Amino acid sequence: MNDLVSPPYGAIEEVIQPLRTLLGNRLSLDAEDRQQHGHDVSRHTCQPPQAVVYPRSTEEVAGILKLCHHHRIPVIPYGTATAVEGGVVAVHGGIAVDLKLMNHILRLSVDDADVSVEAGVTRLQLNEYLDSNHSNLMFTVDPGADASLGGMAATRASGSSAVKYGTMRENILGLTGVLADGTVIHTGSRARKSSAGYDLTHLLVGSEGTLAVITEITLNLIPIPEQISAAVCPFHDIESAVAAVLEVLRQGVPVARIELLDEIQMDAVNQYSGLQNRVTPTLFFEFHGTPNSVTEQAETAQQICLDRGADRFVWSTDEAERKKLWQARYDSYYACLALRKGSVGYVTDVCVPISQLAECFLKAKEIVRSASLPAPVFGHVGDGNFHVVFPLDPQRPEELVEVTRYHQQLVELALSVGGTCTGEHGIGMGKREALRQEHGIAVTVMQQIKTALDPHHIMNPGKVV
Q1: Among residues 142, 67, 124, which one has the least CA distance to residue 97?
Q2: Which of 397, 399, 410 is nearest to 368 (CA)?
Q3: How far is CA 266 from CA 127, 259, 358, 409, in A?
Q4: Assuming Cys at both sites, which of 132, 233, 261, 264 could form a disulfide with 376, CB separation 3.0 to 4.6 Å?
Q5: Residue 436: CA atoms inside 13 Å, Cβ hemisphere, count?
Q6: Closest by alpha carbon to 42, among 410, 427, 423?
Q7: 191: burial class by Cβ within 10 Å (0-12, 13-18, 19+)?
Q8: Nearest residue to 226 (alpha-carbon basis) of 164, 136, 141, 165
Q9: Low-confidence ranges of the chain (pLDDT < 50)
Q10: Residue-wise pLDDT tens digits, 270-313
Q11: What global pTM score does this model have?
């Protein structure tokens, strides 16, 4: 199975003046600006675009794409660049379309519990808006970073709350997208279900900018729980911790989040954040509901964990105390990087069926045990998604070779039990071969869809397919 062949691209000079006419000083050729737009927070080498544009509307995005389609100039949609698979790297040059000025909340319906936003709105901005308008609603998808909602839609993001509230896939009702030739399409509706035609919304969700630029999104919201509690629970070993997770899920405890950090990760966050957690495998829980239901959930989980050998189960409903309890999980990624000064992160992202979690988590630790660099393992174990973060020295290419080998073994492990090569980070540049391993001939179908919508292959070329 071959990759799509990138066609000859046009000369950027052909579109500079037309773009200047369209956007004025919102076209940048500045070297520093272009450098900033050539990488995300991952290991992937920076490759800057040849220009950066800052549209303010869907209509301007359509104008940009019409010009780029006609002159065959690559287009790379750009949000906050908080992803980890090189999705914003300008592999073939071209133009980065930075959507940060499209940051308006367009409409809120409290009665329908939905909201429409432009793609540049970030998740924290949205929740602050909902709070300031006393809506008693919240947007639940939390990938950790304050990512843009357009970027989260494009990568089908999720995070620690997915076990209860789902991923971006489940929380997007519809969207506006601009296709490669500048055609604007509106997909989905505000209705909670529909049988009307092909599901174009969920074709574009997760397409990582290879099919369209997403400019507006309509999102599902959730009533703010009356009470939230958090708990931290250390175990002597991984087996007991995972057994407790499976039993909590088996008994139907409606947990909002369940996270597991291994002993290496706990040591890293202790060093990074000045904490005093036990250096041992540790579960982090969060429970949402009424005061009575939250207490019942916490007490049930506590008994399950203690029965399976937990050292203790510390929980609280106080907001400040909850944040303190969860600090280790919040700081996990940057704590990994702090293990080696100047390192970059190579993040694995497999997801497996819950029934296979214990075996796969243990096998993952065994796979990376002989690594020449630190290899913390942690994840959203409530839905079977876990990560190994390798802090790479970018000046030592032999480390990249070594870690790529471990990543391949982890992908093979996940696929062997019916899992996936990526639970939430997407394919980007880094997992294209893994996508072929997972989907086989179906990748050819993806390529055919890509070519049908983007015949000149200008949309984020070099990514996904």
Answers
A1: 67
A2: 410
A3: 29, 12, 19, 24
A4: 264
A5: 13
A6: 427
A7: exposed
A8: 136
A9: 1
A10: 999 998 999 999 999 999 999 999 999 999 999 999 999 999 99
A11: 0.94
